[in-house]
Amino acid sequence: MDARRNWIIGILLFLALSVAGLTVRPLVVPDEPRYGIIPAEMVDSGNWLALRMAGFVYYEKPPLGYWLTAASMSAFGQNAFAIRLPSAVATLVVALVVAWMAVRITGRRDDGPLAFMVQATTLAPLIIGTVALLDPPFAAFVALSMGALYCACTAIGRARAGWLALAGVAAGFAFLTKGLLAFAIPGVTALLFLAWERRWKDMLTMPWIPLGAAAITIAPFAWMIHRAEPGFWEYFIVVEHFRRVASPDSNQHPEPWWQFLVVFPIGALLWTLAWPNAWKGLRDATEWRSGMRFMAAWVIAPITLLSLSSGKLPTYVLPLFAPVAVLVAIGLLRARASERVMPDRLAVFARTLVRIAAVAAFIIAIAGGRRFGIPILWDSGESLRFTYIGAALLLWAQLDVWSWKATDPRTWLLRTALAPAPVLLVIPFLYPEAALTAMKHPWPLLQRHAEELRSTNVLVTSAAPAHALSWVTGRRDLVIAGPPGEFDNELNLPHEESRKIAWSAVAAKVLATKALAPAQSIAVLGSTHELERLAQTPGLPAADSSESVGPVTIMYWR
Fold first, then answer.
1. Residue 307's domain spans which residues?
2. Is 112 exposed, middle or buried (0-12, 13-18, 19+ CB in 10 A)?
3. CB distance 549 to 524 below 8 Å
4. SS3 of residue 554 by DSSP
5. CA distances from 281 to 272, 327, 437 (A)
6. Alpha-carbon gap, residue 488 to 242, rounded angstroms
7. Which of 370, 400, 435 finishes a domain?
8. Are 315 and 194 in contact (CB under 8 A)?
9. 349 and 333 within one domain
């Protein structure tokens, strides 16, 4: 009965934290508009094999993640909820795998919902799981593959073969979402685990079934994609993988080797603070040794592999929070049961800090942030938001007190997971749109001009707002002016040359267009600096209208 109750609480908690806020904040530029316009073109065109981004041929990622979003759009329309829903569903899948692994390791079904809640309240999966990215679906397929691999490592006979095949199928879908990392993460994890267990024969025999299953899964989709886009696979494998690893450019995010060692503990908050106590419960748990080794290998081997790559993004470690949630949940339960985790001065000190922060939030709500040098973060509702923050922090501190009153380890962990929920619920409402430039928050400007931008005959834009512009207007014929930015791969393709232009040539394009067809209208969108220079071009007639919002300007020649 307790397990069923805890599952109900866990699912409701997940829905509140990860689904209810999907439409609260605007899309984050440039990623979310990019992951919206690609599946939107699939839905509009009916062609789900030849990927297009604002009309450009798109070779950077396989289509499965975009298919999931396109399916969501087909059901719910082209809106923020639809493009974020696949991420939320994928985050749910990962949390369910965490529950599955906890039960598989300990043999206790009532550990499942508690491990689920640890994962559901971990900061990085929680936040990234409400953003339209490919990383959450990729993490879900990787988690399924890793869960099946662990089951294969602890099974024999036909059951082992079945689990290995399932691991390969999931890895195949992960590959169709994001690429070869789908094989690298399970592969290095399994090799480290089997070496740790000294299962040398299994290292040679186990890989073949999952590799075969993955190949069978991928083959029909790969063939269909090749038929639709003959150059896709060569470009995707060579450029997107080997260049990213060996010599990334500025768009491939080169970072130092130690970045993930910093990013990962931050992403694992607030449970990072519980790692020492979880270790107290795990260090002599010999009956769970194999399970703990597999979960540890799931973190250590991939993070080492990822650190060797020159190109890095914080979201790359998203698949690695799941095994930590498993270890934290079962470690804390064991430590609490053996009375190795008790209320102490550190917990009292932490609650005191939280209450001080709550009081500070109430003071700011009353006096206003500008009196304390805090910049304007939101277009409206500053006092109300700081009041919410203060109330959430106070409630968190009180719920933490409540959690320590529980004597049963599972009740204690349930309450511990619920304690920060008020603060986590506030996060979607704190998106600081007023503190962002119009390049990062172009939505008010674009919405005001949406109708005219849709009807303009020629639309020239800099790369930075291009994804957002295509999302708002539905235009797939943008001409990119200046540095290619996020369109560098697309504009390097020979057949896309006609859709790029230097800023120095924009004035000539305006003049030539008006000379050939005076009735045609032209709109140019870009940085205020570039458009001011454009307006000073000798011989160029003054724009019929324009609007500037900070660093962004729109000009029209009608």
1. 2-23+79-337
2. buried
3. no
4. strand
5. 15, 9, 48
6. 17
7. 435
8. no
9. no
If asked whether residues 296 and 362 sit together in one domain, one would say no
User: Helix or strand or coil: residue 178?
Assistant: helix
Q: What's the number of domains the chain is made of? A: 3
Q: What is the mean pLDDT of residues 295-309?
A: 92
Question: Which among 87, 116, 89, 88 is positioned nearest to 100, based on CA atoms?
Answer: 116
**Whole-number average pLDDT of the chain:** 93
* Residue 502 covered by a domain: yes
- Per-residue pLDDT, 245: 55
DSSP-H helix ranges across 229-344: 232-237, 244-246, 259-267, 275-282, 289-308, 321-337
Same domain, 403 and 269: no
Helix (H) / strand (E) element for 365: namely helix 345-367
Report the half-sphere exposure of 109 (CA within 13 A, side-chain side): 6
Of 525, 530, 554, the C-alpha closest to 467 is: 525
Contacts of 196 (CB under 8 A, 6+ apart): 293, 297
Number of CB atoms found within 10 A of residue 23's CB: 13
The answer to whether the beta carbons of residues 240 and 175 sit under 8 Å apart is: no
CB atoms within 10 A of CB 231: 12
In-domain check, residue 494: yes
Task: Return the pLDDT at 247.
Answer: 55
Q: What is the pLDDT of residues 210-260, one digit of tens each?
A: 999 999 999 999 999 999 988 888 888 877 776 655 555 555 566 788 899
Which residue in 185, 78, 106 sits closest to 138, CA to CA? 185
Other CB atoms within a 10 A radius of the CB of residue 212 amount to 13
Name the packing angle between helices 289-308 and 259-267 (round to 10°): 130
pLDDT of residue 339: 86
Pairing of strands 52-53, 56-57: antiparallel
Distances (CA, A) of 347 to 21, 253, 284, 337: 30, 39, 25, 18
Last residue of a domain, one of 276, 304, 337: 337
Note whether 403 and 494 are same-domain residues.
Answer: no
Please count the CA atoms within 13 angstroms of the CA of 269 that sit on its side-chain side: 8
Please return the burial class of 45, using the count of CB atoms within 10 Å of its CB with bins 0-12, 13-18 and 19+: exposed
Q: Are 245 and 153 in a shared domain?
A: yes
Question: Whole-angstrom Cα distance, residue 443 to residue 376?
Answer: 18
Report yes or no: 491 and 499 within 8 Å, Cβ to Cβ.
Answer: yes
Same domain, 274 and 420: no
Is 191 in the same domain as 148? Answer: yes
Binned at pLDDT 50, 70 and 90, residue 304 comes out as: very high
Give pLDDT tens digits for 161-174.
999 999 999 999 99
Instruction: Give the SS3 label for residue 438.
Output: coil
- Shared domain check, 138 and 111: yes
Inform me whether the pLDDT recorded for 126 exceeds 70.
yes
User: What pLDDT, in 10s, does the model give residues 8-59?
Assistant: 999 999 999 999 889 999 999 989 999 999 999 999 999 999 899 999 989 8
pTM > 0.90: yes or no: yes
Q: What does the alpha-carbon distance between residue 336 and residue 219 come to, in Å, rounded to a whole number? A: 49
